[in-house]
Amino acid sequence: MRSKLLFLLQQPLLDLRDGLAPALPIDPSPGEFVKGINLGGKAVTIEGQRWDAYSHALASGLSVPGAQEAKTYIVPRPHASSDIRKLLNTVIFKPATLEICQTLPNGNYSIYLWIMENFQSNWHSLNVSINGKSVAQGIGHFDRGSWAKYGPYPAIVTDGALQLAISNNDPDLDAHLMGLSIYRL
After folding, report:
1. Can you tell me the distance from the alpha carbon of 180 to that of 150, in angstroms, rounded to the nearest whole number?
2. Residues sharing a CB contact under 8 Å with residue 17, sequence separation 6 or more, in sequence order
3. What pLDDT digit, counting tens, does each position of 45-61 carry?
4. Rounded CA gap, 135 and 75, in Å?
5. In CATH, what number is assigned to the domain containing residue 174?
6. What distances in angstroms separate CA 72 from CA 44, 69, 76, one per listed residue?
7. Element (H, E) at 5
8. What is this structure's pTM?
9. Ramachandran region of residue 47, left (φ > 0), alpha (ψ -120 to 50) or beta?
Protein backbone atom coordinates (compact mmCIF):
# COMPACT_ATOMS: atom_id res chain seq x y z
CA MET A 1 0.00 0.00 0.00
CA ARG A 2 2.79 2.40 0.94
CA SER A 3 4.62 1.88 -2.38
CA LYS A 4 1.39 2.42 -4.35
CA LEU A 5 0.76 5.66 -2.44
CA LEU A 6 4.33 6.82 -3.12
CA PHE A 7 3.84 6.09 -6.82
CA LEU A 8 0.62 8.11 -6.90
CA LEU A 9 2.27 11.01 -5.09
CA GLN A 10 5.30 10.94 -7.40
CA GLN A 11 3.33 10.72 -10.66
CA PRO A 12 2.32 14.42 -10.78
CA LEU A 13 5.92 15.33 -9.95
CA LEU A 14 7.12 13.48 -13.01
CA ASP A 15 4.87 15.66 -15.16
CA LEU A 16 6.08 18.81 -13.40
CA ARG A 17 9.73 17.81 -13.84
CA ASP A 18 9.08 17.44 -17.55
CA GLY A 19 8.31 21.17 -17.49
CA LEU A 20 5.46 20.62 -19.89
CA ALA A 21 1.89 21.71 -20.26
CA PRO A 22 -0.95 19.22 -19.77
CA ALA A 23 -1.21 16.48 -22.37
CA LEU A 24 -3.06 17.41 -25.52
CA PRO A 25 -6.28 15.48 -26.11
CA ILE A 26 -6.30 12.94 -28.93
CA ASP A 27 -9.22 13.02 -31.36
CA PRO A 28 -11.38 9.93 -30.89
CA SER A 29 -11.16 7.32 -33.60
CA PRO A 30 -14.32 6.40 -35.51
CA GLY A 31 -15.55 2.84 -35.64
CA GLU A 32 -15.46 -0.06 -33.21
CA PHE A 33 -12.13 -0.57 -31.44
CA VAL A 34 -10.70 -3.97 -32.36
CA LYS A 35 -7.11 -3.87 -31.17
CA GLY A 36 -4.29 -1.62 -30.14
CA ILE A 37 -0.71 -2.86 -29.86
CA ASN A 38 2.11 -1.20 -27.95
CA LEU A 39 4.87 -2.33 -30.27
CA GLY A 40 7.92 -3.26 -28.23
CA GLY A 41 6.24 -2.50 -24.91
CA LYS A 42 3.83 -3.49 -22.18
CA ALA A 43 0.05 -3.18 -22.10
CA VAL A 44 -1.23 0.42 -21.88
CA THR A 45 -4.56 2.25 -21.94
CA ILE A 46 -4.88 4.68 -24.83
CA GLU A 47 -8.03 6.65 -25.72
CA GLY A 48 -9.88 4.69 -23.01
CA GLN A 49 -9.03 1.32 -24.60
CA ARG A 50 -6.71 -1.37 -23.25
CA TRP A 51 -3.89 -2.06 -25.72
CA ASP A 52 -2.02 -5.35 -25.92
CA ALA A 53 1.56 -5.73 -24.81
CA TYR A 54 3.85 -6.60 -27.71
CA SER A 55 4.57 -10.07 -26.28
CA HIS A 56 0.84 -10.83 -26.00
CA ALA A 57 0.17 -9.59 -29.54
CA LEU A 58 2.95 -11.84 -30.90
CA ALA A 59 1.30 -14.81 -29.18
CA SER A 60 -2.12 -13.95 -30.61
CA GLY A 61 -1.83 -13.30 -34.34
CA LEU A 62 0.84 -10.61 -34.84
CA SER A 63 3.89 -11.36 -36.98
CA VAL A 64 6.83 -9.00 -37.56
CA PRO A 65 9.64 -11.01 -39.19
CA GLY A 66 13.12 -9.76 -38.37
CA ALA A 67 11.95 -6.81 -36.27
CA GLN A 68 14.04 -5.63 -33.34
CA GLU A 69 12.79 -3.90 -30.19
CA ALA A 70 14.14 -0.84 -28.39
CA LYS A 71 13.19 1.46 -25.54
CA THR A 72 13.97 5.17 -25.33
CA TYR A 73 13.51 7.85 -22.68
CA ILE A 74 12.53 10.88 -24.73
CA VAL A 75 10.03 13.49 -23.60
CA PRO A 76 7.44 13.66 -26.41
CA ARG A 77 6.51 17.01 -27.95
CA PRO A 78 3.68 17.88 -27.85
CA HIS A 79 3.28 16.60 -24.34
CA ALA A 80 1.52 13.25 -24.00
CA SER A 81 -0.22 11.37 -21.19
CA SER A 82 1.76 8.82 -19.19
CA ASP A 83 0.52 5.80 -21.17
CA ILE A 84 1.08 7.53 -24.52
CA ARG A 85 4.63 8.40 -23.38
CA LYS A 86 5.16 4.72 -22.58
CA LEU A 87 3.84 3.78 -26.02
CA LEU A 88 6.00 6.33 -27.84
CA ASN A 89 9.16 5.25 -26.01
CA THR A 90 8.94 1.62 -27.12
CA VAL A 91 9.52 0.72 -30.73
CA ILE A 92 10.01 -2.05 -33.24
CA PHE A 93 12.32 -1.43 -36.18
CA LYS A 94 14.05 -3.10 -39.07
CA PRO A 95 16.48 -1.87 -41.74
CA ALA A 96 14.76 -0.59 -44.90
CA THR A 97 11.28 -2.21 -44.56
CA LEU A 98 9.28 -3.27 -41.53
CA GLU A 99 6.64 -5.85 -42.44
CA ILE A 100 3.73 -6.43 -40.10
CA CYS A 101 0.99 -9.02 -40.41
CA GLN A 102 -2.01 -9.11 -38.04
CA THR A 103 -4.70 -11.78 -38.29
CA LEU A 104 -8.17 -10.22 -38.45
CA PRO A 105 -11.63 -11.30 -39.51
CA ASN A 106 -12.52 -10.23 -43.04
CA GLY A 107 -14.06 -6.78 -43.18
CA ASN A 108 -13.44 -3.03 -43.46
CA TYR A 109 -11.08 -1.32 -41.03
CA SER A 110 -9.42 1.98 -40.20
CA ILE A 111 -5.76 1.76 -39.27
CA TYR A 112 -3.79 4.28 -37.17
CA LEU A 113 -0.02 4.40 -36.78
CA TRP A 114 1.73 6.03 -33.82
CA ILE A 115 5.22 7.33 -34.54
CA MET A 116 7.78 9.46 -32.66
CA GLU A 117 11.19 10.56 -33.92
CA ASN A 118 13.43 8.85 -31.37
CA PHE A 119 16.87 9.21 -32.93
CA GLN A 120 17.64 12.60 -34.45
CA SER A 121 15.63 15.30 -36.15
CA ASN A 122 14.39 14.49 -39.66
CA TRP A 123 16.01 11.04 -39.61
CA HIS A 124 12.96 9.03 -40.65
CA SER A 125 10.72 9.58 -43.64
CA LEU A 126 8.40 6.62 -43.92
CA ASN A 127 6.17 5.21 -46.64
CA VAL A 128 3.24 2.99 -45.73
CA SER A 129 1.40 0.36 -47.70
CA ILE A 130 -1.57 -1.68 -46.52
CA ASN A 131 -2.38 -4.94 -48.24
CA GLY A 132 -0.02 -3.99 -51.07
CA LYS A 133 -1.55 -0.54 -51.68
CA SER A 134 0.40 2.66 -50.92
CA VAL A 135 -1.50 4.83 -48.40
CA ALA A 136 1.10 7.38 -47.19
CA GLN A 137 4.51 8.79 -48.08
CA GLY A 138 7.01 10.76 -46.02
CA ILE A 139 5.36 10.39 -42.60
CA GLY A 140 7.36 10.64 -39.38
CA HIS A 141 9.75 13.27 -40.78
CA PHE A 142 10.00 15.70 -37.89
CA ASP A 143 12.14 16.96 -35.01
CA ARG A 144 13.50 14.59 -32.37
CA GLY A 145 10.79 13.98 -29.77
CA SER A 146 7.95 15.07 -32.07
CA TRP A 147 5.22 12.53 -32.61
CA ALA A 148 1.94 11.96 -34.39
CA LYS A 149 -0.98 9.59 -34.66
CA TYR A 150 -1.36 8.99 -38.41
CA GLY A 151 -4.55 7.81 -40.06
CA PRO A 152 -7.15 6.73 -40.55
CA TYR A 153 -5.89 4.55 -43.36
CA PRO A 154 -8.59 2.36 -44.94
CA ALA A 155 -8.00 -1.38 -45.07
CA ILE A 156 -10.14 -4.15 -46.48
CA VAL A 157 -9.25 -7.60 -45.16
CA THR A 158 -10.37 -10.40 -47.47
CA ASP A 159 -7.98 -13.21 -46.55
CA GLY A 160 -7.98 -13.09 -42.74
CA ALA A 161 -4.86 -10.94 -42.38
CA LEU A 162 -3.89 -7.28 -42.45
CA GLN A 163 -0.53 -6.71 -44.18
CA LEU A 164 1.43 -3.52 -43.43
CA ALA A 165 4.76 -2.51 -44.94
CA ILE A 166 6.59 0.52 -43.60
CA SER A 167 9.73 1.55 -45.44
CA ASN A 168 12.21 4.38 -45.04
CA ASN A 169 12.80 6.64 -48.03
CA ASP A 170 16.52 5.93 -47.51
CA PRO A 171 16.92 2.13 -47.77
CA ASP A 172 20.10 2.32 -45.64
CA LEU A 173 18.08 3.53 -42.64
CA ASP A 174 15.58 1.71 -40.46
CA ALA A 175 11.81 1.84 -40.58
CA HIS A 176 10.11 1.96 -37.20
CA LEU A 177 6.72 2.01 -35.49
CA MET A 178 5.62 2.57 -31.89
CA GLY A 179 1.91 1.75 -31.93
CA LEU A 180 -0.81 0.32 -34.12
CA SER A 181 -4.54 0.69 -33.54
CA ILE A 182 -7.29 -0.99 -35.54
CA TYR A 183 -10.98 -0.04 -35.76
CA ARG A 184 -13.75 -1.94 -37.56
CA LEU A 185 -15.98 0.22 -39.74
Report:
1. 10
2. none
3. 999 999 999 999 999 99
4. 29
5. 2.60.120.430
6. 16, 10, 11
7. helix 2-18
8. 0.85
9. left
